[in-house]
Amino acid sequence: MIKGVVVGVGGLLGAGVLGVGGVLLHDRNLRFARGAVRVIPDHRVALPAAAPRMVIARGPDPARNVRAAVERLGGMSQFVGPADVVVIKPNIGWDRAAALGANTHPDVVSEVVRRVRGANPRRGNVSDCPVRRSRAALERSGILVAASAAGAEVIAPEDSRYHPVYVSRRLGTWDVLEPFVIATKVINVPVAKHHPLTGVTCGLKNWFGITGRLRMTLHADVQRSIAEFAALMRPTLTIVDASRVLMEHGPEGRSLDDVKPVRTVAAGTDPVALDAWATSLFPGPPPANLALAAQLGLGRLDWQALAPVELVTG
């Protein structure tokens, strides 16, 4: 069972980093594990041939959309078993209310927690590294309360450790929050929204939230950095929240006028296809990171070729 414990979230997210050449710059608010550089395993699973690879569920209730999509994929037990340590990764980047669409909708997160609990893993949690004001982001987003009420252990960055993890030849070694290092199964639960650097941000870029390092350094070649972080994580399942879509002024969100009620959740095992679907909700071409991720073998750009199953939930 997922522990019904909320880990404390006091304080602000510090700026401890693993610098060039592996030099460790400490921040007193963060803890770093010493030892060998860790390797993240491949979290993907093989589904039965008859199971769909992508499901799109539409309706006014975000939780019901999640439930319908996961059940049509074959149920959470297709992805999670009793021996697993599971981490659920929403986007909790910003100190914003759910209505502004900057973070994953709390009802989506809580239903994912319930689905995972139903699969009886050895351990499970919800975790993310907010961009700033960690406590405020967890609380104001509604995710702390919703995930805890559903039975999740919520792990804030201040209350865990970071481990050195090799990301890629270009990016080298980065500090990664412990839940993402020790997990045997990873469920990515991003929100689809506008981003000024990439046009659209969704599941692939959501992996920037596994690190407490100063993420601005990734923006020098943001498209390639997104693809390389996605290649690091290789999730078990991706569940895209498009309940309320921030169409402009992302990623932080400014006004309800920028939010479009799409009332949809998409789920599947191909993270590239799911991001491509999310991009189709916006004007303009897909961001370059999708093609780069496809070249790395993470999935396919043509999401329609997966013949997604479409459901209407209400």
- Write the H/E string, N to C: EEEEHEHEHHEEEHEEEHEEHHE
Number of helices, where a helix is a run of at least 4 consecutive DSSP H or I residues:
8
Overall mean confidence score, pLDDT: 90
Note the main sheet.
10 strands, mixed
DSSP strand content: 15-25%
Helix content: 10-25%
CATH topological fold name: Rossmann fold
The CATH superfamily is identified as LarA, N-terminal domain
- Class inferred from helices and paired strands: alpha/beta
| CA-atom Rg in angstroms | 18 Å
Terminal residue distance:
30 Å
Shape: globular
Could you describe the 3D structure shown?
The chain is of the alpha/beta class and 314 residues long. The chain has a single domain, classed as 3-Layer(aba) Sandwich (Rossmann fold). Helices cover 23% and strands 24% of the residues. It has 8 helices and 15 strands. The strands form 3 sheets. Strands 4, 5, 6, 7, 10, 11, 12, 13, 14 and 15 form a 10-stranded mixed β-sheet that branches. Strands 3-8-9 form a 3-stranded mixed β-sheet. It has a two-stranded antiparallel sheet with strand order 1-2. Helix 1 packs parallel to helix 2 and helix 6 crosses helix 8. The longest helix has 13 residues. It is globular and about 50 Å long. The two termini are 30 Å apart.
